[in-house]
Amino acid sequence: MDSTGDAGKEDDDESSSSSPSDEVSVGKESGSETIQSALDEFRVKWKQELRKDGSPSGSSSPHREKPRPSGGNAGLENEKENVSIEQQARALFLQGSELERVGKVFEAMRLYRKAVQLVPDIEFKIYDIAKQQDHATAGMNLEMEQLSNELMQASLEDDENLENVDLVLRFQSLLAKSGKLFESASAADKMLIVTSAHFSDLPMEVILYILRWVVSSELDLKSMERFARVCRGFYLLARDSEIWKRACVRIWGVNVGHLKGSPFGTWREMYINRPRVHFHGCYISRTSYLRYGENSFQDQFYRPVQLVEYYRYCRFFADGKVLMLTSADEPQACVGKLKNRYAQQAEILHGHYRLHNDEVIIAIQRNRSNVQSQRPGRKKEIAGEYGQQTFYLELNIVSTAKRAYSQLHWKQYSMVQLRNNQEKTTVFELAPNKYPALYFSRVKSYHQESEGPLK
Q1: Contact assessment for residue 396 and residue 435, using Cβ atoms and an 8 Å cutoff
Q2: Is 192 left (phi over 0), alpha (psi -120 to 50) or beta?
Q3: Is the dihedral of CA 246, 248, 250, 255 positive or negative?
Q4: 53, HSE (Cβ side, Cα atoms, 13 Å)
Q5: What CA–CA distance (Å, rounded) separates 134 from 313?
Q6: Confidence at residue 381, expressed as pLDDT on a 0 to 100 scale
Q7: Model pLDDT, residue 56
Q8: How many Cβ atoms from other residues are within 10 Å of residue 81's Cβ?
Q9: CA–CA separation, 151 vs 275, rounded Å?
Q10: DSSP string, 137-157
C-alpha cells in the first residue's frame, strides 16, 4: 500500500473525527469578535456625538434643539431669562455711569446703547430701584430715631409720678424743647415732594379757625375732644381759652358772668362743671298707664281697660331754640324728624328755653285753628275750639354716675289758653307715672355737618 495514500487517509480521519468541544470553542471566538466590533462602533459614534454637542455655534456640525419645558415651567424659564437680561442691562448701565463719572463719555455711550438694546426702559427702572432703597433707608433711620426718643421718653415717664401732673403744663414744656407744636410722623410725608402742604405748615390762626369749624355753631364739643386725642399739639390747641369762652357765652348769654367771681378756674372748667343741656342728641321719656272704660250695658261686671303708651321727645339747640314731639312711634322713627330746627311737621312744637342755675325753663306755643270756607273760592281763618295754647315747663337738670346732665326731672308744668280774648291757666299734676324723667340719648346724625363756625 502506498504511504502517501495512508497519510491522506489519516488526515481525513482526523478532520472527520474531531470532537464537538472544538467546534463550540471556535463559535465562541467568532461571536466575541462580533460583540467587540459592535462595541467599538458604539464608542466611535458616541465620541462623535459628544464632539457635535460640544462644538461651537459657528461650526458646520448640526445642532440639536434642547427640549422645551411644558406648562408652568415655560413661564418660569421665560421669567428667569427676562430677569437675567434685565440684570445684564442694569450692569451695563451702571458701568456706563461709572465711566461717565470719570470722564470717559464715549465708552459710557457704548455701554448705554447696549443696555438700552436689551431693556429699553432700563434707566427708569434703575431710578425706581434707587428711589425705593433711599426711602427704605430713610424710613429705617427715622424709625430708629423715633424708637430711641420713645424709649427715652418712656424712661422719663416711668420715673415721674403722673397722678397729679397738669398735662397742659407738661406738654407745653416738652414742646418748648422741640420748638414745634406738631410735625409729620411719616417718613414718606417728609421725603415726598408734593404741591400741598402738611397741616403743621399752616399758621396758628388758620388752625384755630379750622377748630372753630369743628366745634361749629351747634357747639359740637365732643368732636373737639376727639380732636384733642390725636397728639400733644392738638391737645393744647383744644384747650384754647377763646374757644371755650365763646361756647360758654353762647350757652348762658348775658348770665355767663366772669371767671374772677366764679368758682371755676378756666372757661373749659365752667363749661364742664356748670349745669347745662346736651346738644348732640335728644331727651326721651316713655309714658305708659292704664285707662279704664265704661261698664258694658249688657254686662255690668265687664269694664274694658286700655294700655296707653307714648313717647315725649325734646331736643335743644345752642341758639336757645327747642323742639318737642309727643308720639306713639319708637325713637328710631322720630329722632330724625328733630334734626332740623325749622321742622314743618304739624305735630312738632317749637319754642325757646333758658338756663337758670340747675333748671331749664321752656316755653312752647301751639296755635290750633280751623279753616272754614264762607264763600266759594275764599277761606277765612277762625279761632278753633282750643284757641292758642302756651305751655310752660320747668325741669331740673340731673347728673348720673355714668354721664353728666343726662336727665331732666319735672318740676312744674302749666298751660295758658287764650280763647275769645280770655286767658285760662291750667296747672298739671305731675304724677310720676304720667310724667317720668327724660333721659338723654345721643344721635350721631345731628352733627354730621357743620353749618358755620363758632362765633
Answers
A1: no
A2: beta
A3: negative
A4: 8
A5: 61
A6: 46
A7: 42
A8: 10
A9: 43
A10: HHHHHHHHHHHHHHHHHHHHH
Longest dimension (CA), the chain: 191
Check if the beta carbon of residue 217 is closer than 8 Å to that of residue 243: no
**Cβ–Cβ contacts within 10 Å for residue 159, how many?**
7
Backbone angles phi, psi at 176, to 5 degrees: -65, -30
In whole angstroms, give the CA distance from residue 387 to residue 185. Answer: 66
Other CB atoms within 10 Å distance of the CB of residue 302:
10
Long-range contacts of 178-185 (CB under 8 A, 24+ apart): 180/233, 181/233, 181/236, 181/237, 182/231, 182/232, 182/233, 182/234, 185/146
* Straight-line distance from the first to the last Cα atom of the chain, in angstroms, rounded to the nearest whole number: 164
- What pLDDT is recorded for position 371? 39
CA dihedral 226, 232, 236, 237 (to 10 degrees): -60
Beta bridge partners of 286: 311
Supply 132's cell numbers.
425705593
Length of the chain: 455
d(C-alpha 292, C-alpha 98), whole Å: 102
Phi-psi region of 307 (alpha: psi -120 to 50; beta: other; left: phi over 0): beta
117's grid cell: 438694546
Per-residue cell: 175:
414742646
By the 8 A CB rule, do 407 and 440 touch? yes
Distance CA 220, CA 217 (A): 8
Give yes or no for a contact between 279 and 250, defined as CB atoms under 8 angstroms apart.
no
Written in H, E and C, the secondary structure of 45-94 is HHHHHHHHHHCCCCCCCCCCCCCCCCCHHHHHHHHHHHHHHHHHHHHHHH
240: Cβ–Cβ under 8 A, 6 or more apart, which residues?
A: 208, 211
Residue of 358, 374, 344, 367 lying closest to 417 (CA atoms): 367
Would you list the DSSP string of 296-339? PSS-TT---EEEEEEEEEEEE-TTSEEEEEEESS-HHHHGGGGS
Answer yes or no: are the C-beta atoms of 349 and 325 closer than 8 Å: yes
| pTM of the predicted model over 0.90 | no
- All cell numbers assigned to 176: 418748648
- Stretch 340-357: mean pLDDT: 89
Cell (9 digits) for 311:
313717647
Number of helical H runs and strand E runs in the chain: 13, 9
CB 338 within 8 A of CB 313: yes
What count of other Cβ atoms lies within 10 Å of the Cβ of residue 234? 19
Name the pLDDT band for 62 (thresholds 50, 70, 90).
very low
